[in-house]
Amino acid sequence: MNIGDVAQKAGLPPKTIRYYEDIGLITPLRDTNGYRVFRESDLHKLAFLGRARALGFTIEDCRTLLALYEDDTRASADVKELAQAHLAKIEDKIAQLESMRGTLSDLVKSCAGDNRPDCPILSDLATGQH
Amino acid sequence: MNIGDVAQKAGLPPKTIRYYEDIGLITPLRDTNGYRVFRESDLHKLAFLGRARALGFTIEDCRTLLALYEDDTRASADVKELAQAHLAKIEDKIAQLESMRGTLSDLVKSCAGDNRPDCPILSDLATGQH
DNA sequence: CCTTGACCTTCCAGCGACTGGAAGCCCTAT
DNA sequence: ATAGGGCTTCCAGTCGCTGGAAGGTCAAGG
Between β-strands B29-30 and A29-30, what pairing exists: parallel, antiparallel or unpaired? Predict the structure, then answer.
């Protein structure tokens, strides 16, 4: 398989796949013309990576997850720990964003949004007082 | 005021303040020795920027907000529009993260987290099937 | 056989918003 | 005189790609 095919099947852009090779996540073979040749195992890894990335794992997490996946003697506890730590970070970020949303939506509601210059959004930013 | 003082008062690291000068958000004066000299108005702007950044506005949004703030003839509608667009982005991001959280917390729950290698988290990543 | 166009290759630069570190000047206190 | 802290600039790195340039390769059509 060439990069275009595998990109389509894995749902990842060719650029991303080349990048993953660069950083050593995959190591496809090479044809005599220099083209990358992907095995089924490469495709499988790419799909794995795509799903892990879609869950928000960092590239380094993905590297670890792949290594765990390929290690028959892994302990599921290690995987779970990684996932839990990641989940905690996501929950932190959600909390942050929800706090922003709260403040912002209050501000938006309180702003007339007309031709006049008076604007509680700017006043709040200027003074930190609501 | 020197950069250290203003950093403390504005709650921003000196590095960030220098960066804000680099990109033209503020233009402090200079002492004969080359040190930056901050006026009250600079401090005020920095505090404004700190609050806007804390609400998640991009630097370019902040630039626009500052300009609106300093324009007596602004229409509050312009500010509101910017804030609303930003709010929408935040809500999108929250939705994304919540979807991740949902999947991840299911996976974490389903994983024994013991010494055995069997792990639904890895199976899910490998196959995309739960 | 030649051309066209789609694919592939590498390499370099840029995104956003800083942050770390090096090298060196300045100022104050002892 | 020296020690320390603070200030300066500049360069590089973060993260995960993404865009673009310059050029090689391949299959189909004329």
Answer: unpaired
